[in-house]
Each structure stands twice: as structure tokens, then as C-alpha cells.
Specification:
Layout (H helix, E strand, L loop, with lengths): L1 E6 L3 H13 L4 E4 L8 H4 L15 H24 L10 E4 L6 H14 L4 E3 L1 H7 L10 E4 L7 H14 L3 E3 L4 E6 L4 E5 L3 E9 L14 E2 L3 E11 L8 E4 L4 E5 L3 E5 L3 E2 L8 H14 L7 E12 L6 E6 L2 E5 L5 H18 L12 E2 L4
Parallel strand pairs: 1-2, 1-9, 2-6, 3-12, 9-18
Antiparallel strand pairs: 3-5, 4-5, 7-8, 8-9, 10-19, 11-14, 11-15, 11-16, 12-13, 13-14, 17-18
Helix pairs in contact: 1-6, 1-8, 3-6, 3-8
Bound molecules: flavin-adenine dinucleotide (FAD).
Flavin-adenine dinucleotide binds next to helix 1, helix 2, strand 11, strand 16 and helix 8.
Length: 368
């Protein structure tokens, strides 16, 4: 019997597993069906947009700020453990109003952020051009958030995977969990290959988390929101800051003069692969802001599925004795993963929810 079985080896499941293994000599298994294209975690832009994403001082905003602060040391620890560099960068993020209609909202966000952090500033047209080495063509309202960094999400996910392997956690590949059943003092986890018993189970199945918990009728429901991403390359483009437009398009500079351009949003779409329409929207929007991108090469394109809940409020809860649901991190799962790993591991070991994570409860209509 395992002490803890974690279903889902995205950044959420693996961050919990990694911290748990540091805490105690627990026997832990992480299970994933590993279908190509189904891990959102490998597909993400890698933005650590703790301030970019929020306009109110909520429990989620506080988690995001704390989690962002972990990344510098986490990137060093992961490099020591795995030899994988997750390309942590601290060049900041520029948020830009995509239309006249968005200017007031961006000003309100600036006001909120600047009251709490004076390093957040508005940018004049000239200071924006200077910051972006003259690469940008933009004259609406823009603000600069210097502390929102970024990483390479694919390398981060690979580093977590290598780290949990190094730590002796059992990793069951190409294994689908078919059902979960509560027995007297443990859970029966029926997989495509075998039956496992576990004292505690964590469902971290991203956008598919509901499927295993139908008996509990959990609210809010988790829905998949598909995003398409392009990776462009331009040898002469000198842009360091992430650009984030209020229409949802963003440009994240990566190593080797590559620029990740994201992302479309298709609600309740679980398909894998890109569409010409999505690719064109991204390319045209990005090139409208950064004209040099018109002559860039498309190196790669892909899609991923974000776990979304109403009001974009994640679920982190013990929904039955020893059964935890941790999902719904939508556009911020990479950013939030270190703190969630830490807090959920504390909860699982101590049988007490840490106060920082108590506001993310699910409702269940059926008590088994
Ligand atoms: C295009 C895109 C851009 C993004 N950009 C950012 C960003 O810049 N910054 C940021 O912070 N976040 C970003 N995100 C969001 C982030 O990627 C997600 O919030 C995060 O990866 C979710 O992690 P997860 O572990 O919950 O889910 P996933 O990574 O989806 O992992 C869930 C896993 O569970 C497995 N699974 C599900 N059901 C079963 C089952 N029954 N049996 C076995 N295995 C199962 C799946 O195979 C999957 O591997 C982005 C997402 C996308 C798609």
C-alpha cells in the first residue's frame, strides 16, 4: 500500500510529490496516462505573472506573489539536482492596452499594483521604445511590472520529472486511472494495468480532474480551455521583456532569439493540435506590435489545455477523508506550482489545511 498516490504528473502533481518526498519517508506514486499533448504544463508560456494577472488583493494574489519569489532558488535547486536549466529570467513584463476600451481597466490595475509596489510604473511612448530597444510599434497605454519574471515551462516540467525520479518516487507511465473507490481505511485506485491501494490520494489531473470524481458531484466544475502557441525566431530582434496585451496575445522572449507567442482560448475544447485560424491570429497580433516579427520564422507550434473553473478560482481541498483535489489553476499553474507543492504537502502530512490555502474549497453534493 502507498502512503500517497498522486494522479497527474503535470507541474501541480509533481510539485506536491517533490515536496512530500522531502518531508518524510513516505511511499509515493505519481500516475499519468502520458498522452502526447495532454500535459498543459509542457505547453505553457512560462510567465510568472503574479502582478500581471491580478487586480484585487485576494488569497490567490497573495499565493501568486509568494510563489513567484520561490522561482530563483527553485531554478538553482533544480539545476543542481537534475542539470536542467529552466531559464529563469528577471526582465519584467510590459502590459499594454490593446484598444482604447481597455485603457481605463489597465489604469485601474496600475493603481492597484503601484499602491503596493512602487516599482510598477506607467510607460511613456518613448520610455516604452527605449525599454524594447526600438523594436515596438505601440502608442496606447502601457505599464511596466519589473518583478514578473519567466521560465521555460517545458524545461521546468522536465526538471520536475527528473527530480521526482531521482528522489525515488514511483512514476507509473502510460497508466490511466479508471476509477477511485473509498474502502474502509484506504482508497482503491483502479488503473489500466492494475489495482493500487493508497492511504491518501491526490487528484491533480488538470482539465480532466472531474472525470474521476463524478460520484462526488464537485462544484465548481473544471473545464478545458485550449490554447494555441507559436514559437518564432528572429536573429535581429533584441527584446528582453515579456509583452502582454489586454486582448490575450503575449510575446515571451526565450533563449536563442526565440519568441513564444501565445495564446488563443477555446473553451471546452479538448482537441490536440493547432488551427490555421489560431496561428494567423497570433502571428498577426504579434507582428502588429513588433514589426520585425513579420520576417520571423515559425520554428514550432503547439497547443495545450488549461484547467479552468468559474471565476478562475482554483480548487485545493480535501473532498473526502484523505482524498485531495488540486486543480483549476487555469493560466497560472506554472506560477503557482511551487507554493501549491509546499502547502499541499504540509496539508497531506499534518492533516490540517495551512491557513494560506483554506479559501479554495470545493462544494460536493454527494457525501460517500
Ligand atoms: C497555451 C498555454 C499557456 C500557458 N501559459 C502559462 C503561463 O505563462 N504561466 C503560467 O503560470 N501558466 C500558464 N499556463 C497554465 C498552466 O500550464 C496550467 O495551469 C498548468 O500546467 C496546469 O498543471 P496541472 O498539473 O494541473 O495540469 P496538466 O499539466 O494538464 O497535468 C494533468 C495531467 O493529468 C493527467 N491525467 C488526467 N486524468 C488522468 C487519468 N485519469 N489517469 C492518468 N492521468 C491523468 C494528464 O495526462 C495530464 O498529464 C498555460 C497553459 C497553456 C495551455
Amino acid at each position: 500500500m502507498y502512503d500517497v498516490v498522486i494522479i497527474g504528473s503535470g507541474v501541480i502533481g509533481m510539485s506536491i510529490a517533490r515536496t512530500l518526498s522531502d518531508k518524510d519517508s513516505l511511499s509515493i506514486a505519481v500516475i499519468d496516462r502520458d498522452v502526447p499533448g495532454l500535459h498543459a504544463s509542457y505547453k505553457a508560456g512560462g510567465m510568472l505573472g503574479a502582478q500581471n494577472e491580478f487586480v484585487q488583493d485576494t488569497a490567490l494574489y497573495q499565493l501568486a506573489l509568494r510563489s513567484r519569489d520561490y522561482f530563483k532558488s527553485l531554478s538553482q535547486d533544480l539545476y543542481k539536482e537534475t542539470n536542467i536549466n529552466i531559464d529563469y529570467q528577471e526582465h519584467g513584463l510590459i502590459k499594454m492596452a490593446a484598444s482604447e476600451d481597455d485603457i481605463e481597466c489597465l489604469k485601474a490595475q496600475y493603481h492597484f499594483l503601484n499602491q503596493r509596489d512602487r516599482s510598477v510604473t506607467t510607460l511613456s511612448e518613448n520610455s516604452l521604445k527605449d525599454l524594447c530597444n526600438d523594436s515596438i510599434d505601440f502608442n496606447h497605454h502601457a505599464i511596466y511590472i519589473p518583478n514578473d519574471g519567466q521560465i521555460n515551462a517545458s524545461k521546468y516540467t522536465k526538471a520536475l520529472l527528473k527530480s521526482i525520479n531521482n528522489k525515488g518516487i514511483d512514476r507509473l507511465y502510460h497508466t490511466e486511472v479508471k476509477s477511485l473507490k473509498r474502502l474502509k481505511d484506504c482508497y482503491k485506485v483502479q488503473t489500466s494495468h492494475s489495482i493500487l491501494l493508497a492511504k491518501k490520494v491526490v487528484v491533480a489531473g488538470g482539465a480532466w480532474s472531474n472525470d474521476l470524481l463524478e460520484n462526488y458531484q464537485i462544484e465548481p466544475k473544471v473545464t478545458g480551455v485550449k490554447g494555441v502557441v507559436l514559437l518564432l525566431e528572429h536573429e535581429h530582434l533584441n527584446l528582453k521583456q515579456t509583452l502582454f496585451m489586454t486582448n490575450g496575445c503575449y510575446i515571451v522572449p526565450k533563449r536563442g532569439n526565440r519568441f513564444l507567442v501565445g495564446a488563443t482560448s477555446y473553451v471546452d475544447d479538448y482537441s490536440v493540435g493547432t488551427s490555421t485560424e489560431g496561428e494567423q491570429w497570433l502571428f498577426n497580433k504579434a507582428a502588429a506590435y513588433i514589426p520585425l516579427l513579420n520576417s520571423s520564422n515559425i520554428i514550432h507550434k503547439w497547443s495545450g489545455i488549461r484547467p479552468y473553473t468559474d471565476h478562475e478560482w482554483p480548487i485545493m481541498d480535501e473532498i473526502d477523508n484523505g482524498l485531495f483535489l488540486v486543480t483549476g489553476h487555469y493560466r497560472n499553474g506554472i506560477l503557482l506550482s511551487p507554493i501549491i507543492g509546499k502547502l499541499m504537502a504540509e496539508w497531506i502530512v499534518n492533516d490540517q489545511p495551512p491557513s494560506l490555502i483554506k479559501d479554495f474549497k470545493a462544494k460536493r453534493s454527494v457525501h460517500l
